[in-house]
UniProtKB/TrEMBL annotation:
One of its GO terms (molecular function) is metal ion binding. Pfam families: ZnuA. Belongs to the bacterial solute-binding protein 9 family. It comes from Caldicellulosiruptor kronotskyensis (strain DSM 18902 / VKM B-2412 / 2002). The keyword Cell inner membrane does not apply. This is Periplasmic solute binding protein.
């Protein structure tokens, strides 16, 4: 017994030191930080905040937004942060831990209505412009003396989104096909805004495998509409896609819905560069 006790004391002490160092680290490193929940908000906020504000995201690289749950470490980070920006619908989990704290919380989808429980508003360049203005206004409210800096960054971003919007319109106008098939339906708002029809394999909030009946319907649809391509986010793993491709001969084309973003994308891309890749993908599948 004595031996055990002697061993546990230093262990306990080192554990307590470890705990207090964790606590200090999260408090000192997140104090001035603006946290975002999902990658699209992270990327937009970073583009507008520039060098002025430290921006972080909660949903980790490689994690999927629809099933994400924050860890206790995530909660410790946000409850000591300066502010938190969330989208709504897909990341409501961020609200409860912030109740009663001084952390400012902002819903970036303000003024945008969600349709049919579909959270993917960031894949439409037109809605992205609105999100960007919302975030610009929020960052200005946090740091009013740098108003013109945020305004300038947001205007640059919006100019790029205007260009992207025009390019999407022209791709659709010059394409024969007005529908597309996608594994996970993250482009419903883009479809709505550019008068396209989105067909998908999974539901809007999950990545589950389709039923045998649904598989039959998709194969039928491909034949009926003579569909040549299926849009797939390479970060998503959906074995049914490979089966459909094998059975029907449709070719897989990469698309980036940003529901899962890997670490290389998080580091080297922005929402703009990913949307430019998406434009090329649509150009190909709508041809
Ligand atoms: Zn999604």
């Amino acid at each position: 017994m004595k031996k055990i006790k002697l061993l546990t004391i230093p262990l306990l002490i080192s554990f307590m030191v470890f705990l207090s160092s964790c606590k200090n680290e999260s408090l000192t490193t997140t104090k001035g930080t603006v946290y975002t929940t999902i990658y699209p908000l992270y990327s937009i906020t970073k583009l507008i905040a520039g060098q002025n504000i430290t921006v972080e995201k909660l949903v980790k690289d490689g994690a999927e937004i629809h099933s994400f749950e924050p860890s206790s470490r995530d909660i410790a980070k946000i409850t000591s942060a300066k502010a938190v920006i969330y989208l709504g619908l897909v990341d409501e989990w961020v609200k409860k831990p912030l109740e009663g704290t001084k952390v400012k919380i902002f819903r970036a989808s303000e003024g945008i209505g969600f349709v049919d429980n579909d959270p993917h508003i960031w894949t439409s360049p037109r809605l992205l412009k609105k999100i960007a203005r919302n975030i610009e206004n929020f960052l200005t409210s946090l740091d009013p003396k740098n108003k013109s800096y945020y305004q300038e960054n947001a205007s640059k971003l919006i100019a790029s989104l205007d260009k992207l919007d025009k390019e999407f319109s022209s791709v659709v106008k010059n394409s024969k096909r007005k529908e597309f098939l996608i594994a996970h339906p993250s482009f419903g708002y883009l479809a709505r805004d550019y008068s396209l029809k989105q067909y998908s394999i999974t539901g809007v909030n999950e990545e589950e495998e389709p039923s045998a009946q649904k598989m039959k319907e998709i194969v039928q649809l491909i034949k009926e509409k003579n569909i040549k391509y299926i849009l797939v986010d390479p970060n998503e793993n959906l074995p049914a896609v490979k089966t459909i491709a094998k059975d029907t001969g449709v070719k897989i084309v990469n698309i980036y819905g940003m529901g899962i973003v890997n670490s290389s994308q998080a580091k080297n891309e922005t929402i703009l560069s990913l949307m430019e890749k998406n434009l090329k993908a649509f150009e190909m599948v709508l041809k």
